Amino acid sequence: MNTADARRIGDELEAVGGMAVPHLEDADIVILYSCVVRHAAQETVHNELIRVGQAKRQRPSMRVALAGCMVEDDTVELARRYPFIDRFLSPKTDLPVRDQVVDLLDLDERYRVDPSDAERVGLVSQPVTISQGCNRRCTYCVIPFRRGDERSRHPREILREVRSLGQRGAKEVVLLGQIVDRYGKDIGTTLGQLLAEASEVDEIARIRFLTSYPVDFDGPLMEAVATLPKVCEDVNLPVQAGDDAVLRRMARGYKTMFYERLVDEMRSVIPRLSLSTDIIVGFCGELEAQFENTLALLERVRFDVVHVAMYSPRPGTASARLWPDDVPQEEKKRRLHEVERVQSGIAGEINGRVVGTTQDVLVEGQRKGKWFGRTRNNKLLFFSSDRDLAGLVVPVEATGASSWSLQGQLVDPVPTRIIPHAPRIAS
Ligand code: SAH
User: Could you tell me which of 399, 418, 417 has the C-alpha nearest to residue 409?
Assistant: First the structure.
C-alpha cells in the first residue's frame, strides 16, 4: 500500500515538473512512506529517517515529509525526535494527493502542468490502493489506530488510475485494502463490481486483490473471481492462528471451522484457486498445544504460501495493554522456523504438481540472465529466451519446482495471445 501511495504522489510531483533522482542526497523533496506493523519495520523506518536527516544536513533546502503509519494523531513526539521533518502526511486524512503536493511545495495551483505525459511505469505489476483504514480491532494490530476508519475510494477515481497505469505500460494491477473484500460497502458498491469494471481496461491483462478478511468473503465475490477472465485465481486470506482460543483473544471473529468451510467453498466455486495466508506465532499466552493446532491447520488447508511473523506488541493495541508478551523470543523463533519447515514441505509438493503443465506467465523482467514472471496462481517462474518478452503473457511449460519458485521452458512458437505495447524493463 505504501508503494502504491508513493507512486501516486510521485506521479503528482511529476505533474508539477518534478523528476525522480536515484540518490537521496540529490533530492529537493523526500517523502518517506512508513510502516510500523511490527517493531522491526518501525526500526527500518527509524534508520531510514536518520539517513534522511544526514542528507538534509548536507542540503538544507531539502523538504522532508513523513507519510504512512508512523504518523500518529499527535506528531509532537515525532517532531521532537526528527526535527528535520517539515510535514506529516497522516494516513487518516484523505486530502487529495494533488492538494498534498501543492501544500508540501507551497505551490500556487496555477503552476500545475498537464500530467498527460507522465512517465511510463517501471514495473509490469502495479499496486493500487482502493480503500483506506480498517473498522476491525484485531487486538494485536496497530493499523486501525494509524489509518483510521474504513473508507472506499470512488470507483471512478480508481478506474482512472488503472487506465493511466495501463497506458503507461502496466499489465497487471493489484487492488489493495486492509480488508479488500469489504470494498464499497460504505459507498454502495462491491469489490466484485469493481473487478468487473477494471476488467474493461484493455491494456490491463491481469487483476489481483488483497488482503481478504475471512468473514467478508461472500458468494458473489467468489463468482466474480471464478468468472472474470482477467481476475487471477489467487486469494490472500489471513487466518493468523489455527487455534480457537488464540483466535478469540485476537478478536478475529471466526473459528477455525468457519475458516476451513469457507476455504472448501472457495475451492469448489473457483477452480485451480491458489491460497496464501498470514500467521502470527508467539501471540500472548500461546501454549505449545495451541501452536501445534496452527501447524495442524496448515497441514489440513495446504496453502500455497504462508507469511509468518513473530508477535510484536504494538503501542496502543489491546493485546499490548491487556496481556504480557510472555512467549520468549527464542521460542517465537523456534515456532516461526517450525511453520516455515512445515510450509516448505507443503509448498514443495504443491509446486511439484505444476511440473509438466503449461502456464500462462506474465513476464516481469530478467534476473541473472533468465526471464521471470508469474503464473495466474502467483508462482514465480524462471525460463530462458533470446527474445524481449517483458510485459507479455507467454505460455511456459514448468519443468522443475522448489518450494519458492518454478523453472520452465517457453512453449514455441509464442502464440498470438501476446499483448501489444510491451514496456521495457531495466534488469
Ligand atoms: N489488514 C490485513 C493485515 C495487514 S498487516 C489483514 O487483516 O490481513 C499484515 C500482517 O502483519 C497481518 O496479517 C499479521 O499477520 C501481521 N501483524 C499485524 N500486527 C502484528 C503484530 N503486532 N505482530 C506480529 N505480526 C503482526
Answer: 399
